[in-house]
């Protein structure tokens, strides 16, 4: 009887431990008419997703250059970190969607030539698809975006382009886009030698975080909750610091974090629990 009781307890506690673990699906895909290809993405489902019938808030978590939709899964340890943050009460249970922006061409934006419209794909194909496929709350309040490096740039631009869709945005070690119009022209001329000055200016105004912040209407200053984090040894520190200064001058509320570290997964793994806690404040109605 004693042996049976011990075994029963082990089975019970094992089942409880298993029930407290989320799940990652990292080989999902959807067809894209805009990009004329299957597009892969990964999804983190919180521990109680399989046993509940409720809908969940969503975080779109963007990878950096050189990685794909599995970057946050493999190197960012999103399963372990999200499970821990939820179990400790730092984060509310949420679904995390991680798209692939490194197949075909690299990046989260529409190409200046108009022949690779990834940003259009994200908003008109990916977002509606995943929010219908999974039990995701569709309101702005329950939707956030974050990302590292190139994905931090995507987080900046997507939230600045569509503040009506995101409650919080958390760029990490972000590529903030060209700092000046001259920088934008120099970058674009490398692959577009005949580009017109007017096209450069339009692209700069849409893909520079500084330009977007400086042109931000007053009624949008509090539309998105901002959490910006960049290491003091990061090669992108200057751009992030200038964005912080621009936000302060514009009187846009935001959090700006500078910690010891560089452009590394060690830094981003340490950032993720704070990101999950920050966006959960909005999900919880802070």
Describe the structure.
This protein has 286 residues and is an alpha/beta fold. It has a single domain (17-177, 225-283), classed as Rossmann fold, CATH 3.40.50. The protein contains ten helices and eight strands. The chain has an eight-stranded mixed β-sheet, with helices on both faces. It is globular, with a radius of gyration of 20 Å. Residues 4-18 have low confidence and may be disordered.
The residue fraction in helices comes out at 40-55%
CA-based gyration radius: 20 Å
Q: How big a fraction of the residues is strand?
A: 15-25%
Question: End-to-end span in angstroms?
Answer: 51 Å
* Number of strand elements: 8
User: Kindly state the mean pLDDT as a whole number?
Assistant: 93
- Which structural class should the secondary elements be placed in? alpha/beta
Q: What is the CATH homologous superfamily assignment?
A: Alpha/Beta hydrolase fold, catalytic domain
| CATH fold-type name | Rossmann fold
- Spell out the helices and strands N to C: HEEEHHEHEHEHHHEHEH
